[in-house]
Amino acid sequence: MEPRFNLLDSPTAAKISRRLASVSQVLEESPLPKNLRELVQLRVSQINGCGFCVDAHAKDADAAGETPLRINLVAAWRHTTVFTEAERAALALAEEGTRLGDQGVRDETWAAVRKHYDDDQIGTLVCLVSLINAGSRLNVILHNPGGSYEPGMFARLAG
C-alpha cells in the first residue's frame, strides 16, 4: 500500500500537522500515565482501522513498559482480567467517544471516568480521544500504512 498523499507537501496541511504534533507534546506532559495514554490511543486506532496508528501506539506502549499481553488484549479489553477498573473506564470512554454515532458517551461511562480520574486527567482523556481520532482518520484517508513507525518520530515533527 502506498500513501495517497504526503500532508507535508501542502503548506497549509503541513502547518496543521505540526500543530497537531505540538498538541501531542502537551499530552506527554499531562498527569495521565504514558502507558494508559498509549492503550487508549491504541484502542481508538483499532476501531478506526488505522494501521499506521496501531503500529505507532503498540510500539509506544511497549516503549512505555506495557506488557505484550496487555497490548495484545486491548482490542478485547471487556473480556479480559488484565485491566484495572480505572483503565476499563478510560477504554470505555475511548470507544464511546470514537463511536459517537452509535450512542455517544453513556452516563454510566462518564460516571466511571469521574470516579477514577480528577478534572485534569479527564480533560486530558477527552482531548486525547479527540486528537487520536483526528490523527487516525487522517492516516486512514491518506492510506498511510503501518509497519515503519519508530518511537519518537512524532516528537521530531513537533520541533
Automatic annotation (TrEMBL):
Record SUPFAM superfamilies? AhpD-like
- Name the InterPro entries on file: AhpD-like (IPR029032), AhpD_core (IPR004675), CMD-like (IPR003779)
The Carboxymuconolactone decarboxylase-like domain covers 26-96
Q: Check the record and name the NCBIfam families matching this protein.
A: ahpD_dom
Q: Which PANTHER family match?
A: 4-CARBOXYMUCONOLACTONE DECARBOXYLASE FAMILY PROTEIN (AFU_ORTHOLOGUE AFUA_6G11590), BLL7811 PROTEIN
Q: What is this protein called?
A: Carboxymuconolactone decarboxylase family protein
